[in-house]
Amino acid sequence: MESEVLKLFIATRSETEELCAPLKTEDYSVQPFVDVSPPKWHLAHSTWFFEQFILVKYAQNYKVYDDDFSFLFNSYYNNVGERVLRPNRGNMTRPAVSEVYDYRNHVTASLIELLKTNSTFEIEELVTLGINHEQQHQELLAYDIKYILGHQPTFPSFETKLKLRTTARSSEFIKINEGIYDIGFKGNDFSFDNELGRHKVYLHDFEISNKLITNEEYIAFIEDGGYQNFNLWHAEGWDFIEKNEICAPMYWHKVKGEWMYYQFNGLEKITLDEPVMNISFYEAFAFAEWKGMRLPTEFEWEVASDLFDWGDLWEWTNSAYLPYPNFSKQPGALGEYNGKFMVSQMVLRGGSFATAQNHSRKTYRNFFHPSSRWQFGGIRLAK
């Protein structure tokens, strides 16, 4: 009988390829800017992860598919060896897309065989990490595909089941009483190391909205001169929008006096009651200032999260990405997974419509640089 880990591994590998299936061959190698990785690279890197950290170590007589692939598809694991610099991933027209899929099939079959014939608790733990790693790349693929297509002159449509929901127009603020609260992951299921260790925080009284900010609300901010009023912005945020001439969320375009956006379906009229998305932390902060409110801290968000719906978009918090008390990294390359990024990043909580099913949880700590806009992030206000 197949184990649950094996079933999830097979399903995850299939879901990644299903997401990429509508792409044209020419789409697979494009890298429009440094944060976007070519779809071909995601397919190969998530495969290399299973090969490097599991098959090479645990599968008897396993032969590495191609000795160059570790150099080509290692992301940031210095302990593993040299790698192609991130901005240069789009220069790799070789290996061909077909060979990357052959590589995926080879590694998938080899790992299935290992799980069926020689599995251990240690191996299944690593496979579970690899599954969660690939699920993260599924979401990054969605971001990157949208960027690749959404910055083309003709705004081509992309067939996908990913769909952002509308949000309620009426809102209310949920009150949370001051007190001492437990923060961080607790349990025996999978979690990332940055969700540990569990600790106590003291929170003052606060209120948090039961809904995300909508496009309609954000348009009011734009039309009231939000992008021209430096008083609303961090100095760094103001420099960022000035330097990059930003006056609206990513993928928004003013066409004949009407706001349009790209949402996988080509350029279309903005849906007013959808949550605003593809904004930076700088923009989220400025909007909150304009409303006379603020963004919640990640601890406030976690404490209140059982009282509202979340998962449509990742939600910017006003918390820097820092280690919890007693945070510890694994030895070697896997210890590079989260800890090395705990500087110059802000925490986002929740999940998005592109997050794999059952991947996120209320203790999950996503993180991006405050200037990042291409990820599926939005705004929930607190006061």
In short:
The protein is of the alpha+beta class and 383 residues long. It is 33% helix and 12% strand.
Write the layout of secondary structure elements.
Elements: H1 4-20, H2 39-58, H3 69-73, H4 97-117, H5 121-150, E1 173-176, E2 179-183, E3 199-203, E4 206-209, H6 215-223, H7 235-243, E5 252-255, E6 258-262, E7 267-269, H8 281-290, H9 298-304, E8 314-320, E9 346-350, E10 366-368, E11 377-378
Helix pairs in contact: 1-4, 1-5, 2-4, 2-5
Helix-strand topology string? HHHHHEEEEHHEEEHHEEEE
CATH class of the largest domain: Alpha Beta
Strand order of the largest sheet: 10-9-8-11
Largest sheet: 4 strands, mixed
Walk me through this protein's architecture.
- This protein has helices spanning 4-20, 39-58, 69-73, 97-117, 121-150, 215-223, 235-243, 281-290, 298-304; strands at residues 173-176, 179-183, 199-203, 206-209, 252-255, 258-262, 267-269, 314-320, 346-350, 366-368, 377-378.
- It is of the alpha+beta class.
- It folds into two domains: 4-150, Up-down Bundle (Four Helix Bundle (Hemerythrin (Met), subunit A)), CATH 1.20.120; 173-378, paralog of FGE (formylglycine-generating enzyme), CATH 3.90.1580.10.
- The strands form four sheets. It has a four-stranded mixed sheet. A three-stranded antiparallel sheet has the order 5-6-7, with no helix packed on it.
- β6 and β7 form a beta hairpin.
- α1 (4-20) packs parallel to α5 (121-150), α2 (39-58) packs parallel to α4 and α2 (39-58) runs antiparallel to α5 (121-150).
- The chain is globular, with a radius of gyration of 21 Å.
